[in-house]
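Moderator note: this is an archived Q&A kept for reference. The question asked for a predicted structure of one protein chain; the sequence and the answer are reproduced below.
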Amino acid sequence: MTTIPSRLATLARTSSSVAESRKRAILLYRDWYRSAPEIVEVYALNVPPAYVRHAIRQRFERIRNVTDPRAIDVLLLKMRQDYQETMNCWKTADHVMGILLEPQDRPQRTFLQKFYEGRDEEAVIPGASGI
């Protein structure tokens, strides 16, 4: 498949109501759902399309309870952008497996668990922070 940057491009729109946001979310979900076999084929993933569809469903279920129309618009914009990047092959198979299919919820760890691992992420200061 050739990469045509504008193939899946859409204008950034704002929803006037929650019902309109819901309709746009359902259309985006359908786009993702229908493209699962193509994602598996293009990226040569070792998982069935049903697994990709399940992961897509989980991503949408995680943000289901958002009610602010502006927040929904931002989430839809980001997910549409992610869809476009995935379908235009602008990602590698590792991106797809890591970002789309792996669960993004990290379990909370106690201080002792972090101590036994030898690190404490909250206490680490990034090198480019200027502090």
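Archived answer notes: The chain has a mean pLDDT of 82.
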